[in-house]
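Mods, move this if it's the wrong board.
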Amino acid sequence: MKAKILLLFTFLLSISSFAQSKKDSLFPVRGFCIGSPNTKEVEPFIKFINEELARRGVNTLILRVDFNFQFESHPELRDANALSKADVKKLVKACQANNINLIPQINLLGHQSWASKITNLLKVYPEFDETPHVKMPEKYVWPNADGLYCKSYCPLHEGVHKVVFALVDEICDVFESTAFHAGMDEVFYLGDEKCPRCSGKDKAELFAGEVNLIQNHLTLKNRNLWIWGDRLIDGKTTGIGIWEGSFNNTHRAIDLISKNVTICDWHYEQPLPTAVLFAMKGFNVITCPWRMPAVGVSQVQDLVRFKASATPEMKGKYQGIMQTVWSGVGNFLEEFYSKKEGDSQANCFRAIFEEINKIQQN
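Not the wrong board. Structure tokens:
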């Protein structure tokens, strides 16, 4: 009897191991990206990590930290009520217990303002502003005469990297991370004609120069760079548009940046197959849905098809899927546990991981 039970256990274990191996092969990265929690949300979010992310096999968590940490290198850049080192270590411990790779993000280059507010870096160091002549409006609207979406720092300012690299090193150390996400999406201000350092310079070279500088800095500590991929797509030629692609010629930087950079390829309204572009250019690429379950499921299915028809050189470039969340932790958890039907971040998250598990079982 004991021998039969042992045989059955071994059989079930082998099935489970095969299923996990298949999941790891098709979806090496099964990710989730969200803004870092505030201090009151740390414990509820850890519960979500333990009960929901781990159960679905999520193995990568990107937390958009920005200035929500009590930086010691530059305390002047801290948000009010920012996460303490002890808060972060709780998150690190939860992820390590569930074999989840935890990656912090600080927006570099672009997204140095939002709506009518300048974020901490340019607020404290206004000399880093690429477009100081563009004043923040009392009430933000798009489109506007200044072409203002978000401010950028000047990548050629002699003092900017001393500050931002101190933040990057500190946040990577406290998160015990082997990678760092620099954002770098939706960069509209770059090489401005009024910038004394950047004026007249090739925008693709400016963008690539910043990417490579960050990658090289991270390499010194055996860390890899992740960025969003939209600035590397020709938004005009493809018809993809100004948000998911570039209209200011940064797309040519795709041939100038290090192949060690991991590209997070986001498309939210339709499953555009640009992961193929990045894989063909030699990059590891991760497909990123947001709030439409049907689109997310198509993106999962596309990834399987891309890998099935890929050359051996390209097959391993398709790294997986990452659900993106663009509300705060509190709002997302409320949305997730309410279980309302229809298009939502929570339902997209459920749908893509249900599809991954379905594929794994076939």
